[in-house]
Design a protein that fits this description.
The complex is a heterodimer. By secondary structure, chain A is mainly alpha-helical. Chain A has 14 helices and five strands. The radius of gyration of chain B is 16 Å and the shape is elongated. Chain B has a domain of about 70 residues: 2-Layer Sandwich (Alpha-Beta Plaits), CATH 3.30.70. The chains are: A mainly alpha, B alpha+beta.
């Protein structure tokens, strides 16, 4: 089984869990509860780091329980990068689907944006400032994975979904017709903040060539990248969410002597 | 939703609640009765995603499972005793209350979880709410045979 297949299975299972967890909760099985804003797995609580920062800003208080629940998600991003985005987030899964549809039927987007992180950090700062100024959780209302998971629970409990899903519709239109993968690359505050949690030894895609691992400049890696990045060029962070598709493509060409690899040190 | 909605047990005062609640929906998932619903966009952008209780549909049975699961502290996690809950206060409309209008009825009195304390029957067999004991759970509102209910919870802590 290729890495890409494993990732697809994890992505689809994650979406399945968004429905299964609320269903089991109502049946009295509460080992796992919550949504992609905040999850409890037994006694372990996990909260989206940007939601934690937002709440500190809206409440001007440091709640120990809330801060503790940020450690594992934040630590995961520090060690493995934004694997939440690439392996779990239902919006990324949907966006990959939108992109596959656009590719299949040949939709050409109106604009292309340069890969500079200016827009994503501007959006992130603006939504956090708005949360602070209005004492209102603006980021929660713009968390696509959060909204999708809440509405999945809504569908299970009340057999309806809310108009909040309009955000997902807007993202679909933007990504299909205006700018390719614009939400994950340039707008999402959840991924935007996770991308800040990096150190020099955070796992990253590295092109490391030597005598036994020569890059043939075949470009299968950049074709394989669902975000439109060019792994051969380097400088793909903070956009790259470590899905590993480029490395799998490289392995497909070079076998075990692939120059493109995940490394913790450059 | 025109006025302040009824919040789950342990909710901070409304303004703080709106700032603190991260809209995660965990309290609704923890509620075994389905009493906690998540407000939608149609209820207004401000309350969208927050937990609300509509007692006429399903009241709060004070099982106390939701306060400890709140990740942000919008519900006071340490709240354990149902007697300490102050979600609101039940108010009787004596013009429509069957007992106050002369019919024999004590549905609200019988089903009140703070039995014989939050609601008592006076010497004319008319129900009376005691603000210092009422939790605002809305069970009385739920069981009231009058339509619309003659006893309604006014949300918010009015201590």
């Amino acid at each position: 089984m290729t890495r890409k297949t494993v990732r697809k299975i994890v992505q689809l299972s994650s979406i399945g869990l968004l429905f299964l967890v609320p269903f089991l909760n109502r049946k009295g099985i509460t080992a796992v509860t919550g949504t992609l804003y905040s999850l409890a797995v037994g006694p372990v609580w996990l909260t989206d780091p940007v939601i934690g920062v937002q709440t500190v800003l809206t409440t001007m208080r440091l709640d120990a329980t809330l801060l503790l629940s940020l450690l594992i998600p934040g630590g995961l991003a520090l060690v493995l990068g934004r694997v939440f985005c690439s392996w779990v987030c239902p919006q990324n899964t949907l966006s990959e689907l939108f992109d596959a549809i656009a590719r299949r039927i040949g939709i050409r987007r109106i604009f292309t944006l340069p890969f500079t992180p200016v827009l994503r950090y501007t959006v992130l700062i603006l939504v956090l400032l708005a949360s602070l100024a209005m004492r209102f959780p603006v980021v929660s209302l713009l968390s696509a994975p959060g909204i999708i998971s809440i509405q999945a629970a809504n569908l299970v409990y009340e057999a309806t979904v809310g108009l909040e899903l309009g955000l997902i519709l807007v993202i679909a239109v933007l990504e299909l017709f205006i700018v390719r993968r614009v939400w994950c690359n340039h707008l999402c505050p959840v991924g935007g903040f996770l991308g800040l949690l990096r150190s020099r030894s955070t796992m990253k895609v590295v092109l490391s060539e030597d005598a036994s691992r020569a890059c043939g400049r075949c470009r299968v890696c950049s074709d394989a990248c669902g975000l439109g990045l060019d792994p051969m060029e380097g400088r793909v962070y903070p956009f790259c969410h470590n899905c590993g598709d480029c490395i799998a493509a490289c392995e497909g060409v070079k076998g075990s002597e692939n120059p493109l690899q995940f490394r913790f040190r450059a | 939703m025109s006025s302040t909605p009824l919040r789950p047990p342990g909710a901070l005062p409304e303004r703080d609640f709106l700032a603190t609640c991260i809209r995660c929906g965990k309290c609704a998932q923890s509620c075994p009765y389905g009493a906690i619903r998540i407000a939608g966009l149609l209820d207004g952008l401000e309350v969208m995603g927050t937990p609300v209780i509509r007692p006429r549909k399903v009241p709060c049975y004070l099982c106390m499972r939701c306060p400890p699961v709140c990740p942000s502290g919008a519900l006071k996690r340490r709240l354990q005793k149902k007697e300490d809950v102050r979600m609101g206060i039940a108010v009787i409309d004596t013009k429509t209350c069957l007992a106050w209008q002369g019919t024999i009825c004590r549905s609200c009195y019988d089903d009140c979880p703070i039995l014989n304390e939050a609601i008592t029957m006076d010497d004319k067999l008319q129900p009376v709410v005691h603000k210092d004991k009422c939790t605002g759970c809305g069970i009385c509102e739920n069981v009231c045979p009058a339509d619309p209910a003659a006893i309604v919870v006014q949300p918010g802590e009015k201590a």
